[in-house]
Amino acid sequence: MTPFELAEPATLQEALQLLDPDDATVRPLGGGTALMLMMKAGVFQPSRLVSLRKIASLRRIAVGTDGGLVIGALTPLSDVERSAEVAKRAGVIVHTMRRLSNVRVRNVATIGGNLAHGDPHMDLPPVLIALDAAIVVTGRGGERMLAVENLFAGYYETVLAPGELITELRIPAQGGRRAAYLKVTTGAADDWPALGVAVSLEAEGQIVRAVRVVVSAATEKAIRLTGAEEVLAGAAIDDAVLARAGDAAAAEAETVSDVRGSAAYKRELLRVYVRRAVRQALDGHADGASH
């Protein structure tokens, strides 16, 4: 790696001043799990890294005034995984963490960095979109709120402006909503997924009152499948409705080919796994994996 400056500010405002919106070689450093790999491969050569690790306010898990969760962007994934409050208020996240990479990565990687990286194969974005989560984005000009579903612009792309940081994740109170996340891997259960499907719903018995269906990994970015949602909303769930929802998802999603499978293969996976994820959420099972 080429030499670079490492800055370690103690406050968020100091960090924002050290970031240079006009210089792409100046980057923030959180857990660094992805950034270090890029540097070792020579894909990115920084002139300055601004470490956020000494900013204590960015590492916390708290209950918000609405009963939801407030998670600082520098909170390691393992802290989220072990949090009793997260388990109580959004158990699907804890279940998702157990198959998200491995414990060594989760001990270092941060929840803000996970989102800012924009990798479409990440497990958390579809789950957070299904939970209607939002982030606080902070720059020199102040703060703005952004729904997680609006964060991703494309393949490894986000709408974050140069010099902006994700500083907080907010997950609203889920009430009686139930959620599930299914991932399909071609290797180990904690490998990168060929497909991820997250579902969150409100139901009375077998009748779905409100639903969010999200696909990731098989597409260029995590997206909601509104066609499948329209099939499910207000319907009494049976095999025929689930089949129509799966067909709608397969028709709507623009799947992509990669080393984990062809676009056509992933489309068929999506058709099947939307049905399974809805059923699991309806039955109160928070997670699942196939490989």
Brief summary:
The chain has 291 residues and is α+β, with helices and mostly antiparallel strands. Helices cover 33% and strands 27% of the residues.
Q: How many structural domains? A: 3
Assign the CATH architecture of the largest domain. 2-Layer Sandwich
CATH class of the largest domain: Alpha Beta
By DSSP (H or I, 4+ residues per run), the number of helices equals 11
Q: State the secondary-structure class.
A: alpha+beta
Give Rg in angstroms: 19 Å
Query: How many angstroms does the end-to-end distance come to?
Result: 36 Å
Order of helices and strands: EHEHEEEHHHHHHEEEEEEEEEHHHE
Strand order of the largest sheet: 4-5-10-6-7
Overall helicity = 25-40%
Shape, per Cα inertia axes: globular
Overall average pLDDT: 93
How would you summarize the topology of this molecule?
Layout: E1 5-7, H1 12-18, E2 26-29, H2 33-40, E3 48-51, E4 61-63, E5 69-72, H3 77-82, H4 84-89, H5 91-97, H6 103-108, H7 111-116, H8 124-130, E6 134-139, E7 142-147, E8 152-154, E9 157-158, E10 165-171, E11 178-185, E12 193-204, E13 207-216, E14 223-224, H9 226-232, H10 239-252, H11 263-283, E15 287-290
Parallel strand pairs: 1-3, 2-3, 11-15
Antiparallel strand pairs: 4-5, 5-10, 6-7, 6-10, 8-9, 11-12, 12-13, 13-14
